[in-house]
């Protein structure tokens, strides 16, 4: 969500980035996650911000500063990537098992860093196929198979002809109805009446964020599954 905001901001005044050597960990906000899409692997992500993330000021790790992701005895330096001023970090592991716990450590020499944030994957699930074509004037039923879980579930949808839409799923009922009229045609000129829409269902489990991040943040383990439908009037 923040990255989308930043892409829009780049068209105006642009995002900013700050080299970590000029910051203490007490001034950093951390967005940490471990995400699996059902392929047998999990990608651990980290995005660091200077203060409030809505300011879109990203932290670029410089000098001896680094983010290290660990799973069991495996330890990987997280790869830093930059797109204009958007800075992110990632590392991939060959597991997507429920209960897999990943540790994310910000290692620094200027202060103690943030050595111990953890995220744990919730149970996997299989999202069943959806109808190939769905009218926006009709409801859309989603269903999935897995053991019942107490972890939070949600959905979101995006496509070239509709406004981005999302919602929460109450409990873990194994099915969910997106009501008729939830998807609406995007405003603007030359917007097609029909398009491919990607719907992502997530199951997430809150992790533990190291308290050394003085501006707070979030840590979460996510199982995500997607289906695509053609959305029509």
Describe this structure in words.
- The chain is mainly beta.
- It is 4% helix and 52% strand.
- The protein is built from one helix and 18 strands.
- The strands form four sheets. Strands 2, 3, 7, 8, 12, 14, 15, 17 and 18 form a nine-stranded mixed β-sheet that branches.
- A hairpin with a 6-residue loop joins strand 9 (101-107) and strand 10.
- The chain is globular and about 55 Å long.
- The relative contact order is 0.20.
- Mean pLDDT is 93; it is low at 7-12.
Write the layout of secondary structure elements.
Layout: H1 2-11, E1 16-19, E2 28-36, E3 42-50, E4 57-60, E5 66-71, E6 74-77, E7 79-83, E8 86-93, E9 101-107, E10 114-120, E11 126-127, E12 133-135, E13 140-145, E14 152-159, E15 162-169, E16 175-178, E17 195-206, E18 217-232
Parallel strand pairs: 1-4, 2-18, 12-18
Antiparallel strand pairs: 2-3, 3-8, 5-6, 5-9, 7-8, 9-10, 11-13, 13-16, 14-15, 14-17, 17-18
């Amino acid at each position: 969500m923040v990255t989308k905001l930043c892409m829009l901001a780049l068209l105006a005044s642009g995002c900013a980035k700050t080299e970590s050597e000029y910051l203490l960990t007490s001034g950093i906000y951390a967005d940490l996650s471990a995400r699996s899409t059902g392929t047998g692997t999990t990608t651990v992500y980290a995005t660091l911000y200077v203060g409030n993330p809505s300011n879109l000021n990203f932290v670029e790790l410089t000098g001896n500063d680094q983010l290290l992701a660990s799973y069991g005895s495996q330890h990987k330096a997280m790869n830093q990537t930059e797109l204009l001023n958007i800075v992110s970090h990632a590392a991939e592991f060959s597991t997507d098992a429920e209960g897999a716990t990943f540790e994310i450590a910000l290692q620094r020499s200027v202060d103690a860093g943030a050595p111990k944030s953890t995220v744990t994957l919730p149970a996997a699930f299989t999202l069943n196929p959806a109808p190939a074509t769905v009218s926006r004037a009709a409801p859309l039923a989603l269903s999935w198979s897995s053991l019942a879980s107490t972890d939070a579930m949600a959905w979101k949808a995006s496509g070239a002809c509709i406004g981005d839409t999302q919602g929460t799923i109450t409990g873990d009922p194994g099915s969910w109805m997106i009501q008729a009229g939830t998807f609406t045609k995007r405003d603007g000129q030359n917007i097609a009446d029909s398009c491919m829409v990607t719907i992502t269902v997530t199951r997430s489990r809150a992790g533990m964020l190291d308290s050394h991040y003085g501006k707070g943040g979030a840590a979460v383990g996510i199982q995500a599954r997607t289906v695509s439908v053609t959305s029509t009037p």
